[in-house]
Amino acid sequence: MKIYFQPEADLVQFASTLSELNADAEVGSILVFACDENGWLPADLDPLLQGSAKPVFGGIFPQIIHGLQNFTQGAVCVGLQGEPAWGLVGQLSDEGANYDQPLTALADAWDALSGPATLLVLVDGLAGRIASLTESLFFSFGLDNNFIGGGAGSLSFQQRPCLLTPQGLVADAALVVRLPVYSGVGVNHGWQPITEPLKVTSSLKNQVKCLDWKPAFEAYRQVVENHSGVQFTENNFFDIAKSYPLGINKLDTEMIVRDPLMLNEQGDMVCVGEVPEGCFVRILNGSPESLVSAAADARARAEKVFPHTDRRAPEVALFIDCISRVLFLEDGIEKEFASVTTELPLFGAFTLGEIANSGQDYLEFYNKTAVVGLLAEPPADEVAP
Description:
The chain is α+β, with helices and mostly antiparallel strands. The chain contains 9 helices and 26 strands. It has 2 domains: 281 residues, no CATH class; 94 residues, no CATH class. A 6-stranded mixed beta sheet has the order 1-6-2-3-10-11. Keywords: Kinase, Transferase. GO terms for molecular function: kinase activity.
């Protein structure tokens, strides 16, 4: 893998990097993580994406990661030696859309492919049915592959094109890429419950309307204000809520965290990802120490499940981390980076939700969670001509 980084929103420089990677005989495809603050529009990117001789995949995120730093402008471009199979699933907010059919078709087609495979899944993080798509991914592909990815988009919470594909920049979709790499994936979050379970008595996709038959925000507000000593106002919902996510209770697994983003016009709590009606949630809180410890544990889990051999060891660390974790940790985010790796090249993104499993657990769409992927390309003699 060849990692190129630019710290500025310079479209000319980005085009030059794509040209350099296109001219490299050892590169078969290009992975791009770019920043929302770049202000790159479809009119800017589509000619570059559609005109690239080698396929370009990726997303536009609130922040990106390179080395042991986070950036609000710039881009990371990664040259991969293989040309991956890929698919695009649209209508990610459409209540009537069926994701099983296109994903099963991809799974059936990819079964015949040889070599290592890690599925990169990038979604429009502001779409309404990401958890439904993730469930369809699991039932279509099963436990045969590792998954890693997350939600692209903007902290303005305005949905707009944010996924880079060979066809151009798209919105309200999911990009699934079969990366020809070995991987180990680890997941942890570090948030702890401060309430007993509350029943979600009314919800619609990612909108939580009632908890224990009370208006959801009324129940949430009472707990959070008492615990934090801070009062909600018209303008500070996310500033407080970033420290108090919801945790969905799951059998035989950690709670799945949901990040409350805002209140809609009806006063319902809008989250990143669906919160099913009838499920039980707890209100969570964490400390900088618990979050950094969770990231270190995610790295340890990734190391444990990476398929080590005498000829194979991790080459790079891909870090998918929730944007609200950096907003919570602020300068302390550097401790998370150091806990993830000090010896491997590190790149990644701060996302609107995280997608992962290790090929051993149920695939989930997470919020406020640290996901570490240790990646390695196959040796040259394993690559099909």
